[in-house]
Amino acid sequence: MAAYREILTSVSDHVLTITLNRPDRLNAWTGIMQSEVETAIRAGGADEAVRCIVITGAGRGFCAGADMNNLQTIQASAGEHYNDKTPDLKPKDVSPLEQTFPGRFGHMFACPKPIIAAINGPCAGIGLILTLFADMRYAAADAKFTTAFSQRGLIAEHGIAWQLPRLVGEANALDLLFTARKFSGAEAERLGLVNRALPGEELMGFVGELAHHLATQVSPRSVAIMKRQIRESYFQSYADSLATADAEMEKSFATQDFKEGIASFVERRAPAFTGK
């Protein structure tokens, strides 16, 4: 993998782990980190050796939000060039799905690999937004969350006003955004913000087992298509979604993964999916 300044990456058993790596700052978000995380996700999405992506934080935090030094710089310049601090890493030929979801984190929805956020500690502001664009979220039960924006004189940025109500409902989203109150990983589970909250010492082991399952026991082709089906359905009628499913099912019958899925079941053995 490429060398990075503010993240760490490793690949093991088809799982790419991206670790936000500014532990002395609770992994506060910077333009460099933004570019490096996006670069790593795009590379993992294109790498046939990668079948699942995990994002977590180094040390005791996940991501404490935007680095305050950067916010002070923005304030001093009256917000000039706010959106220019991160280079545009989009490929020349952007997929239709990424065109549907532009902005800073839309590429995560378009990534064909499942992305899991392992929220090991404080998760605030833009760090929280990052997790909303993951496909699944697991948190330490005692991890602290906050949207933070209203207490900084900011607004619901980078798509959180669109995504958060879809996960927790409008009333809960307005509560979390208006008050910027702190809430725990356990409450995040009750709200539906995370799939599950676990004791901190169990989090990475659980996520590791889940990622290994996704990387070895299910068809990467099936997962990629189902991920796309779900994201496209946000703007489809039921009839259009059904038509897409019918067409994709026909294609599935001719794939190696379908043949392997049936054979492994009949022969009572672990599957050896190729994604083909």
Explain what this protein looks like in three dimensions:
This protein has about 280 residues and is α/β, with parallel strands linked by helices. The chain contains 12 helices and 9 strands. Helices cover about 45% and strands about 15% of the residues. The protein has a 6-stranded mixed β-sheet, sandwiched between helices. Strand 1 and strand 2 form a beta hairpin. Helix 6 crosses helix 7 and helix 10 runs antiparallel to helix 11. The longest helix is centred in the C-terminal third of the chain and has 17 residues. The radius of gyration is 19 Å and the shape is globular. The mean pLDDT is about 95.
What is the string of SSEs from the N terminus onward?
EEHEHHHEEHEEHHEHEHHHH
Q: What does the overall shape look like?
A: globular
Mean pLDDT: 93
Query: Nearest-angstrom radius of gyration?
Result: 19 Å
The end-to-end distance, rounded to whole angstroms, is 24 Å
Percent in strands: 5-15%
- Name the strands of the widest sheet in spatial order: 1-2-3-4-6-9
Number of helices: 12
Q: Residue share in helices?
A: 40-55%
Number of strands: 9
Low-pLDDT runs of 5+ residues are: none
Largest sheet: 6 strands, mixed
Please identify the structural class as seen in this structure. alpha/beta
